[in-house]
Amino acid sequence: MRDTSLQAYENIQPHIGRMQRVVLEAIFENRGVTRQGLTNIIGKPINCITGRVKELLQKGLITEKDKVNNQYKLYPTTLFREAV
Is residue 19 part of a domain? Predict the structure, then answer.
């Protein structure tokens, strides 16, 4: 990860809740994970995960794309991706 991406990630931490942070970190570490995948990684029920995902989507911190098996894969926004 580049320093600018790391700084942006660290700057966002105080502005999100604890569970949002856990979900965001899991998405960041597992790019392209689905909501169901997050339940397996985090060990929380789907209803807990979907609420936090919705909040992160509304804040523009993650995006959805690449629909697979009726579920969308989740990605951190370009703010958190390394430059190509």
Answer: yes
Q: Is 23 within 8 Å of 34 (Cβ atoms)?
A: no
Instruction: Give the integer Cα–Cα distance in Å for 4 and 10.
Output: 10
Residue 3 has which token pair? 């320093």
74 within 8 A of 32, measured Cβ to Cβ: yes
Looking at the structure of the chain, the number of domains it has is 1
Q: Could you give the 3-state DSSP secondary structure of residue 15?
A: helix
Which mean pLDDT values do the consecutive 10-residue runs of the chain (84 residues) have?
Answer: 54 74 92 91 94 91 81 68 36
Confirm whether 83 is domain-assigned. Answer: no
SS3 label, residue 66: strand
Beta-strand relationship, 71-76 and 62-68: antiparallel
